[in-house]
């Protein structure tokens, strides 16, 4: 049985507004071991907030409550900042959506990977540079030396995303959180990045949380899927069983997808039931 990396019970996240508190995440409970978990749902359903709460990377005005929120047995809600720094990056990495905005534009790719490596490994500059080149090779970059000397604006979207993955792998984490890691990439590069992530996660024995809007991608890539609507988990099932989902919201998301095998003259529109919020 794989160790439990993430254990969340009744997590709620609210933000103050002029009309009072607005609940963005409502009583979410989930666990994660050494496996690939997909979190799907529309924009604003609470996917990213739920994942970022594991690292306590939320806006300062967020009001977070939970019966239990643990990473590898550590109480994240009550952990001191020094304990959180030992988790962030070192034990759990976060891959952001668009490398154009996530990478530092005035540092080369090699410098950024080396900085991530030294922050957690405490080696020399020469060791950090050698590690950066090795990590670039691990993420299947053909010319690590050239890419290490390049600035983010000199890299394609796929290359930039590989650099981000290399940065997150530098401390050898136990968990990767990938927040829409392929949404800015074309279909061919998207498939390459996902194959790379799958190989790295399997080889290193890590847990993975993949946040996505792409249901077929998640069904093919993940082990389990959590479906979120308006801050709640409305359904949880095995990824291979996603096409047999029973909740009307999940069925609505699936039915709205165009398909070449069964073309429709008109795609259906999601009909929402207020009872889904209850």
Low-confidence stretches: none
Give the rounded overall mean pLDDT: 89
Secondary-structure-based class equals: alpha/beta
In CATH, the homologous superfamily of the largest domain goes by the name P-loop containing nucleotide triphosphate hydrolases
Which key features would you list for this structure?
278 residues, alpha/beta, 6-stranded mixed beta sheet, 5-stranded antiparallel beta sheet, Rossmann fold, globular, 2 domains
How are the SSEs placed, and which strands pair?
Elements: E1 6-17, E2 20-32, E3 36-40, H1 47-53, E4 63-65, E5 68-71, E6 74-75, H2 81-87, E7 92-95, H3 99-102, H4 109-121, H5 125-138, H6 144-149, H7 157-169, E8 175-179, H8 187-204, E9 207-212, H9 215-221, E10 224-229, E11 232-238, H10 248-255
Parallel strand pairs: 3-9, 3-10, 7-8, 8-9
Antiparallel strand pairs: 1-2, 1-4, 1-5, 5-6, 10-11
Q: How is this structure best described in words?
A:
With 278 residues, this protein is α/β, with parallel strands linked by helices. The protein folds into two domains: 29-59 and 78-91 and 173-278, P-loop containing nucleotide triphosphate hydrolases (Rossmann fold, 3-Layer(aba) Sandwich), CATH 3.40.50.300; 101-172, no CATH class. The chain has helices spanning 47-53, 81-87, 99-102, 109-121, 125-138, 144-149, 157-169, 187-204, 215-221, 248-255, and strands spanning 6-17, 20-32, 36-40, 63-65, 68-71, 74-75, 92-95, 175-179, 207-212, 224-229, 232-238. β1 (6-17) and β2 (20-32) form a beta hairpin.
What is the structure about, briefly put?
This protein is of the alpha/beta class. The chain contains 10 helices and 11 strands. It is globular.
């Amino acid at each position: 049985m794989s160790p439990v990396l993430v254990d969340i019970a009744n997590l709620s996240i609210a933000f103050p507004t002029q009309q009072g508190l607005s609940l963005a995440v409502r009583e979410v409970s989930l666990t994660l071991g050494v496996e690939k978990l997909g979190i799907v749902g529309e924009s604003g359903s609470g996917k990213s907030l739920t994942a970022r709460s594991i690292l306590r990377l939320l806006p300062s005005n967020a009001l977070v409550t939970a019966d239990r929120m643990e990473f590898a047995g550590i109480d994240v809600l009550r952990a001191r900042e020094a304990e959180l720094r030992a988790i962030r990056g070192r034990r759990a990495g976060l891959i952001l959506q668009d490398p154009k905005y996530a990478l530092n534009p005035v540092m080369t790719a090699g410098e950024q990977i080396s900085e991530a490596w030294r922050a957690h490994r405490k080696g020399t500059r020469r060791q950090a540079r050698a590690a950066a080149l090795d990590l670039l090779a691990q993420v299947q970059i053909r010319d690590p030396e050239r890419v290490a000397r390049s600035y983010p604006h000199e890299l394609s979207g796929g290359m930039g995303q590989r650099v981000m993955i290399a940065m997150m792998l530098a401390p050898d984490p136990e968990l990767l959180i990938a927040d829409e890691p392929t949404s800015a990439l074309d279909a061919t590069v998207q498939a390459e990045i996902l194959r790379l992530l799958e190989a790295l996660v399997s080889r290193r024995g890590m847990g993975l949380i993949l946040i996505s809007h792409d249901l077929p991608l998640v069904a093919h890539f993940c082990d389990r899927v959590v479906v979120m609507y308006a801050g709640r988990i409305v359904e949880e099932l095995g990824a291979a069983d996603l096409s047999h989902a029973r909740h009307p919201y999940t069925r609505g998301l699936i039915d709205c997808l165009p398909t070449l095998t069964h073309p429709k003259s008109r795609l259906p529109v999601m009909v929402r039931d207020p009872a889904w919020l209850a």
